[in-house]
Amino acid sequence: MRPKAIAALGLLLCAACAAHAGIYYDDSAECIRVVDFPQEAPCTLGRLLQMDRLYGWEMVTWDQERDAYTIAANLCIGSNDGTDTWFQIGGAQRPRETLIMQGNLVVYPYWIEGENRGEHYSAVPRTVNRLTIGVPGDDSVTAALKFHDQNEAGSSLFLGRIPGPEGTVRQGHGGQLHVHHGVITSATPRPGGEFGATTAVGGMSLTGDSVVLDHATLSWISGAATYGMSHNATVRHSVFEHLGTAMINGKQDLVGCTFRNCETAVRDYGSLDAVLTDCVFEGNEHNWTLTYTDKGLVCIDCTWDQPREGNLYRSWENPRTGQVQYPSFVSKRHIIVEVVDDAGEPVPGAVVTARCEQETPELTVENATQQTDELGRTPGEGEDGAILLVEVVKRATDVENQPEVAEFSYTIEATAEGLAPGVVEHFRPAESWDVVRIVLGKR
Amino acid sequence: MARTLALAVVMLTPLVHCLAEEAPVPPEVTAVAARQPVRIDGRLDEPCWRRAQPMTDFHVLGEEGETAGNTTARVAYDDTWLYVGVNCAQPAIESVEPTHLSHDDAVHSDESIEIFIDPGANGTPYFHFKLNCANVKAEQRAFATSARETTWDTPWLSATRLHPEGWDAEVAIPLYELASHGELSRATINVTRNAVIPDIDRQGATLGWKRQLSTWAPLLRSFHEPDLFGALKGLDVERLAVPFLASFNDATIGPYRMVGDEYRYGVTLQVRGHNHRPGRVEVAVIDEPASGKGRTVTRTVEVEGTVAQTVELSVPVALPVERTTTVVMTDAATGAELRRTRITDTSALELMSAYLDRTYYTTEDEAIVVCSLGMRDGALRDTILTATDRDGAVLARQADPGGEARIAIPIRNLPAGSHTISLQWQRAGGDLIFSQDLTLVKLPPRPGLEWKIDRLNGVILRDGQPFFPFGLLMAGISSEDEEDIRRVAEAGFNSIAHWTFAGDPAEVGAYLDVADSHGLAVLARLEACNKRGVDREILAEFFEGEALDRVAQAASHCGATHLKGLLVSNSDLRSLSREARSRIFAQYYQSTLDPILESVRIAREHENCIGFNHFDEPTLSIFDQHVQGRDLYRRVHEIDGYHPVFLLYSSYIPEGEHAVDWCDALGTDPYWVPAGQPTRNTPNFVSKITHWTRQRADSMQKATWIVPMAEFWSGVHKRAILPREQHCQTYLALIHGARALWYFRYPILHQGTWDALSEVAKQLQVLGPIAVTPDIPQQITYDPGQFDPENEEYPDVQVSLRANPAGGQVLLAANSRPWPLDVTFTLSCLGAEGTVGRLFAEDRHQVRDGSFTDRMEPYATRAYAIAEPAATAEPARIRVTMTAHQEAAGEPEREIPRSGRTGRRNLLPNPSFEDATLPGWPDYYRPWYSEPLIGSPDAGWGQDDTDPWHGQYCLRITKNTPRYNGTYFYIAPQHNRPVRYVFSLYLRAERDGMQVTVGGGGFDWKKLTLTTSWERYHVTGIVPPRADRHTMLQVRLLDDGRIWADALQFEAGEEPTDFEA
Question: Which of A409, B146, B473, B810 has its CA 20 to 30 A from that of B77?
């Protein structure tokens, strides 16, 4: 039997850790390694259990009643040897399948700096190492990945980075996580029971080349839950709760997400450039902290409550450029303009134009000129071309937490052939998808 | 190693008596535990082999009830390996000569065995190991879906031993690999044998060899039927163990070098382990010169981990002569052989190869000899290259030539005729290193009639000027169809290819005349005047009785291409040996030669004749078609030395010079399958095949001509190509080296397709002259990705920089993906500031620091006009940096397989014609024609929303030409036994009494008389086991006028049930 002691994946040993085909215990990297499983036949937890029994490891156990597998070891999915490795948790036949990790789970990069032939990751074939939790479009499958918080060497998820001793990591390129209606959480979901890596930022490392969080739930994670997640990600309709930080840095584009009971929902640590659409913030200590970036956070049609510790705005002098950067928060809201005649009948084909009433260099109106449809309305939810107005801009100043606040109002005008123009002035977009009604009288 | 998933090329065998056959009962074997180590040496002498259960009575594939007693297999195991021992009786073993000596080559074509193991994974995956009697291996991972992963490359141990009674194979397969992918308690296995057997005719003479395929588990159609493998019992593993495994890849040979006074060449390979187990391997390079004594160079290599390490061995040789080089890797600890391969690409050892820059000369002042010298370093110093005539007179001389030398030979005063040019490469002291003779052909000038190949640039010259042909293959169009020819000319094409049966050679002349009157050049077809039908006497040499009647009937209306198809697929003809099939084709060819050559005599006198199209998609693996191919090529050039011959393969060009040395222009038809299976469901299939064709053509100094799909081909299932995809594939073909484009085929069915082709033709009027300019040296870097078709990796955007005859350069770019991209192009030839314009658009792109950006929508194409001229000193450096927006593409488009919808009673996809990716053209269904075109108002065929029986649409079918029209589709449910199906549909007609026939695909034809009201009709038939994936059902309208169809249903049973949408 292999020793059950779990150690961090050794940095030096990683140079020899790539594998080719099958499931086996990689002594050099101290992990169960899964390699070369094609998309057509991904590796499953059942396979791991079966191999555990054949090898006599006693590292993988299965609670049949809860359909929960526990792995008392590190698990490495894939390698950087040019193979593809697909790993699946949950499926139509095992809708509640759960993996409980008592070690690190590493979705391996396909290229590792200094190890692979070729100086650059683009010089090697872009192969796929992917962990999939759940099934796209199937909400009857709610699989879960849980991590124990009891392991000193760490117990967390790494995409495209390989954890080493004492919180170090080895950088790579590749590694994918796709979660559909699934959960990533702690095996001990309670205050103080959060899991997270022993790296500087804690949490989980999602620096791989593809992350999909689709109706996913991430919870009970200390530190940065999605460190490294940026333009590689598609995040839709997911819930982030009981986290240290839900979003950190990078280019972010999230739709329909909820941030709940987080220490900081969105955190800028130097490069945040986020657009959140239809998102909800509730019960957080900080909804956002904007402290370094020269960009910031744009919220479109979002709602929030008052964060317990408030938000944070702070400027920062970038030592590389010598420029002071003033992060900003922008709230934008869509509106619908309904044009009717003085009999209350809709006016199709009316031309609607929205103009900001304040002099500002900001781009305050998108889709400023639109035509009404058969119902006399400009494009609404789910349609292209809906009028989008900036509600407020808060920009950090040289004084911490005293942002400059600019609120905007608008003049909205409608014209239609044969009718007199109509105007609504001083309109403030306080609610998303507000319907602004303009009546056009006879000429 | 990256994976390549490819659709299986199944080894089709005759479907003998399948209709009456039930699925066979799989056999069972129990593996015996090996209590002592098994030494993999080809000697089945360990105790476990004596105890193991013999697997005998192999079934001859395709011959019901026939068994072959020449193979016995046994299975054993321990905690590390699954062992398979096979005894192969082969009385003629001394005469057997394996021809596939490289790893992963087609070793199954030799005297060989194959082992199939499903590790208890229900065929997803199963593993396939092949071994020939020379101990050369191949392996792949396969899937029940018929996908194959041919680059799957796990090491396994093998040894073969030849003995007077035959040969034995001893194999060890790592058990942990199998266990990882299935449940060993449910594992299944099959062992098959490919025996080569002397083919003896009735007179007792040996005609050649034919293969007998036999299988331990009885199968129905092919070896790839994992559900019929036999049960593998007894794998009671105590404690699974992982063995040391290593392999090598990318073995290459370097050129000769002088090391002291000794010639040497280098062999380089990448060695790596396949898991964490460290170990040592011995690498041996076996050098076998054509003359003189060979030697073996060995080296021991420590292997730790899977990161590849480069290993180089230097091989000393007595003389730089032709040679073969084989690399063998063994486990140094056990001596077991892990891998053996012969290095096939020995071009680096070619001392000299030279060619002339034109296929023939007329008024040129000089001929250029292009010469590649295969030595490096100091070996080239103090050498002289000399060209002399037959009498030894020096024509040109060059001292200290570089690796690529060009010598100009004056030919102004050379008389017409064939002239031998002798090249000698000598040391300064006079020692001859190498010599080569070239034949220079000079012909009397024929202004207006000269079409020759510029072999240096791979382009055709029309009266000395580069010409880019772009046109359509005109199927079924004769000289009487002038309206069709006019339509093609008006669309903007400059050429057409004759693609119909002309019969009378005079028709070839008439066709050329009509095309000429519309300004079109013509690629004439040598097969146009084929005799129709194979003489019964030819077939009587090989068949008698009923079989002769069957074959004679099948071959009674065929030309050369059709005969080729019969030789490939007809069950009677397939049973013949290669030699017999070759003889049938040869005799048919001789019988039809006269009218073909007469058509050449006629065509050569027409100024608009580009050249001649040879046999269509020859199939050299089945019979020796190249023998007649070479003969016809020679005869054509004897009659007409002024026109090139074009040879078109499908997407695969067989290895060997014999496949390509009978043409001047070489082509392929990279037809892809929109919405189909990977890897053929993308325009990158065009990139790959064009790239490979160009490489092959360049190696033989041919022009590269590509035949893209104009609309669809028989392999397409769901839908035809979309307009934007047409633009994309055209650009990809240009980017990767096409020097002519012939679209398959006219007539077109959809108005949108025709509009797209017309737009493409307009662009090709500009891009064609750009495509035939000499290549610009360029280094392209893609980020992310790289162009690596061997591993199915393609950058999203692909580019090529070409000179623009109008000035400056043009960067061709195509987005090969269904998602948009933000792209930054960085070119070394661009200045720090400025703008880049575009051909065919007004846009201009700002240049900053040598870069410009663009947003490329799905399948977008670009021709960026760059004002700066090409640099002459160094290759242009191009970097393409892409940010993909894959999320914008949505879910990948999928097609319902030909086996039909799963989980539905009605198997037919889109059964009431509601879905139409191309407007008006319902997915999965096709007409024979549509007048007017689909998608245009009042189309002759397509979706119709007038009074449908179900849903929003029904299908309108119009017959308004003398040809019958209707609709057809493919459906082939898969079963292990014959199953009765019923096909039903609703039909109505514009007048009572209109008649249709329904059937095909094994169903009886049924004639129906329609009314003006919706009525339901049905036919029944038997779907055989493993039904052919091309089973085609048809609805044919026999009378002029219109009918409508709706609510088609194909379901198991005798009677139709309620329609299921």
Answer: B146
